[in-house]
Amino acid sequence: MATQIHPDGYAGERQIMVASQLRGRGIRDQRVLDAMARVPRHEFVADEYREQAYEDHPIPIGEGQTVSQPYIVAVTLDALSLQPSFKVLEIGTGSGYQTALLAELCREVYSVERHAPLARNAEATLARLGYNNVSVIVGDGSQGLPAMAPFDAIVVSAAAPQIPTPLFEQLREGARMVIPVGPPQAQELQLVWKQDGRPTVQSLDGCRFVLLIGGQGYSSSSW
Asked: What are the residue numbers of the active site?
């Protein structure tokens, strides 16, 4: 769903972000680039961080969580080869910024967030900006959302010790998932294909995410 964003004072900064941080570093999916030039990232961060919204680094959003740097978001979306007809599962709604991008690129988005205050805030921001093809659910994202499976793509915005079996099982055959996998200190962003019911894994980049807490992730004592 391509939403028309009202003009704001940050359009120029978004264009610079796309040109220098994304296209200039190898992001080629034009739909992803166009969506990131439209979606107002500054609406998804606190007022005190608005002037940093289009800089190349993560930004705190509360509850010990962050919104990822634009480049990592773009790498993730680029690798998924998203299509307008897709039904997508996002694990870790956070501020809702990546959720909005997914809503721009796909037909239907389900997003699971562990922290109820973040889920409520993201839901309110997304509604205010006109995204009506998104459902935000509070729950254990490591278990996925079996009631709505299978999904055409899954994106995980928190690091798991290994690929969670329930998430892989909820992929449609031939579909893709992007997930950071590894120990708490540093991870590898992985692209996972479901081929003949089995995972094929490709490394995308080194990264460091907050941890995926839940039955198929890390325990809360890992923090």
From this structure: 68
